[in-house]
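tool_call predict_complex ligand=6-O-phosphono-beta-D-glucopyranose
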Amino acid sequence: MCGIAGLISKHKANIVTRLIRMLKNLEYRGYDSCGIAILSDNSLEVHKSKGKIDAFAVKYNIDSLSSYIGIAHTRWATHGAVTDWNAHPHTDCTNNIAVVHNGIIENYLELKEWLISRGHKFTSETDTEVIPHLVEEFLIETKNIKQALQNTVRKLQGTYAFVMLTTYDSNRLYFAKYGQPLIIGLSDDYIYLASDIPAFLEWTNKAIILRDGDIGYIEPNSWTIENIFRPDLSPPVPVDIPWSPQQAKKGGYPHFMLKEIFEQPDALTRTIMMVPKQLKGVIPLLRNASEIYIIAAGTSYYASLYGQYLFAKYGIKTTSVISSEFISIAGNLVDKDTVILAVSQSGETFDTLNAVKYVKQRGAKIIGLVNVIESSLMRMSHRPIVMGAGPEIGVAATKTFLCQVASLALILTEYLKNEGKNHEEMLNELKDSPQKLKEFLPIADRIARDLAQKIKDVQSAFYLGRGLGFPIALEGALKMKEIAYIHAESYPAGESKHGPIALVEKNFPVIEVVLKDENYDNMVTSIEEMKSRNGFIISLHEKGDEKIRSISNVSIQIPHIHIDISPILYIVPLQLLAYHTSVLRGHNPDRPRNLAKSVTVA
Ligand code: BG6
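tool_result ok
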């Protein structure tokens, strides 16, 4: 998954610095290589190289470049190694057409062969490079850029969002979108194109969210959008994105991840206000379903697993399944009476969208729990639910996990209410949780900072939990893997006895998530078992619980909270532990290697 950007000044002002800023704002989408293409004296100027944007800006002395129109790209490599020549933009043989692309062109090899047979010369191993050459090829016969672009799009198989700059029309940026996000940003002085809203959110929140099949161009004072697959569709209209520019900035924090951890009380408050209003059509769907599957990837999957445990506790059968495995494990069990609750903060994760597309064809009803308004999953859902986390820039999810947990708990309370069952006690504690979390954050931060000093040099660790504690342990371990690169494995504590315990030795960190529920005694036993193998026991447990405190090397005391929403407080010290360990190990928690904010390719 890459980040693409395009920009035109309405007053012929120099856009280069702002274009690079857009790219920086999109860096969480991939940071293997980057590049820009601009027009100077009506000829294309392309600069690109592997590595991060800051180094690129220095290498090409960006401040000395000038143009009123340009495109840019930051890469998450899929096809072709991380090299200068595989970096985007890619151009045609004549260097008059430059393209930046996000997605995968599945039939690029046969297209490349065909183009080479027609004399085209390729300079990269990427799938993307076929696009400018196709446009070049079709321009020869059509002499019309729009026509050449349409012919090109009709040849492409796979997913794509691309922006094209050409000397043949130096006043427009052309684009096409299918299966990858692309958005137009509108402001008084500039018109933007980008993969994601945070690219231009610091300047405007007025946007047009493009749909699959949309093709067209932007120019200084207008835009043209047609749908190549549904010519009857009227063009999408501008919407105001309910996010503030501040939300897309670090706000004085050293990293977006730390800022987003400390934003969790506000994100929760907004979500607790917004979600109940969106459940009217959702609950009847769930209550009338023959089967309910909760599907998701990454952190969203761990929130979904929490949902399965929580619903089961109240006699509601659901099955949470990792999106990329769903079609194999349950695809053929789905029919028109099945309800799929798809969870994805970005609403763009390929594995989740792919499973949703599959089950929709079998007549299933889709409830989409998303954080990004107008995202693909929101549009594909019969009943979308939008959370209030605000933009999440840090690649490792934090505040969106908490908002997913809160949203699933709110769905439960509404479901039970419809069944005439009262769940006020949990609901009231949920409403109090933002304040409780606000008070707990600085304490958790201090504990995590100290503990990170102790474990920063380990290579592996265990995270154990039972029942609702297991998804918390899974998410804690994922954070440590994602940003500190420590091989942290999570197991149901009971299962850890059947093999994994063989790895435990002196000072091997074992994080135990101990909830005050029916699993409490078994968690005490688990601590004793790991301790007897000299494991270094780090326990998260309810405040004032001397028993657990006395048998642990490190005790992290968590204020009392209703068991059903325990992840809201218990995950926070684990988020912060991973964050501080990552920083102490010299890593950038916002840009973990090999990862991207949401993976929009298979
Ligand atoms: C990964 C992100 O690529 O996708 C994770 O790095 C995230 O943080 C996962 O949890 C799923 O993303 P989404 O947008 O579907 O919730």
